[in-house]
Every structure is written in structure tokens, then in C-alpha cells.
Amino acid sequence: MNMMIFGIHGKAPTMHDIYTHNAAAWLGTHVKLYRYEDIVSHLKDLNSQESEVYFARLLQDCGIAVPDDWRERVIIGSDKAQSSTSRDNLDVDDSRLPDVLPDAQKKLVDYAVPGLRALLGYA
Fold first, then answer.
1. Within a domain: residue 57?
2. Is residue 1 part of a domain?
3. Structural domains counted in the chain
4. For labeling, which of 30, 33, 76, 120 is most exposed (least CB within 10 Å)?
5. Helix, strand, coil: what percent of the chain each, to 5?
6. 83-123: per-residue pLDDT in tens?
7. Are 117 and 111 in contact (CB under 8 A)?
8. Whose CA is closest to 122, among 111, 109, 14, 112?
9. Span 26-36, pLDDT tens digits
10. In whole angstroms, how far apart are CA 115 and each of 16, 97, 102, 111, 121?
């Protein structure tokens, strides 16, 4: 996890570089921020009116007309079996991947990219 925060010299960018150019630099424009946890929460309750409104807004913000079969498409698109980055499909010791970022790594993120967690709504 620390290599994801600090990068690997000459091989992988730092979290600061990734989030500067792919998240923070876009905020304050007309871009909408969608948090992963919020998407997952609405996926778990896909048949609710709240989720319908949420995904309709997400698609509209992406310039996509909401199709009649939007739920089916969301289910297919969120299928972990189709994802090469889903933790279920990784060939690693899963016990090393926490469900929640540990406090030590939260502090390291705050050190490496001060203000990022607050900017993205995590602090």
C-alpha cells in the first residue's frame, strides 16, 4: 500500500501525481465527483428510487441518455468476474488487502498529499 502512496521511482507515479492530474485539477470545473463507496452503496440497492435517481444523474453527467435497461447494464458493468482489478481476481494474499485503509496509511496519505483526503470527502 505504501508503494501506491509514494510510487516506485522510475516505474509508478506517486499518489500526489496521480490525484493532482486525474482528480484535484478537475475539481472546481463543471466535473462531478463520484465516490467509489457511494456507487457501491447504490449498487447494493439497485431497485430503490434513490439508486435510480443516482444512476440517472451519473449517466446524465457523463452525457449518456438513460436507457430503459439501465439496471441490467449497471449489473453487467459492475460484475466482479469481468474485472481484472477486482480483489476477487487478484493473485495475491488477500489478507494483506484491508477493507478499510488503516490509520497508518491514512496518516501517510496525509503526509504525501496534504489535504487530499478532505478534498475528496474522506476526512
1. yes
2. no
3. 1
4. 30
5. 55, 0, 45
6. 877 777 777 776 777 888 899 999 999 999 999 989 888 88
7. no
8. 109
9. 888 888 889 98
10. 11, 24, 17, 9, 10
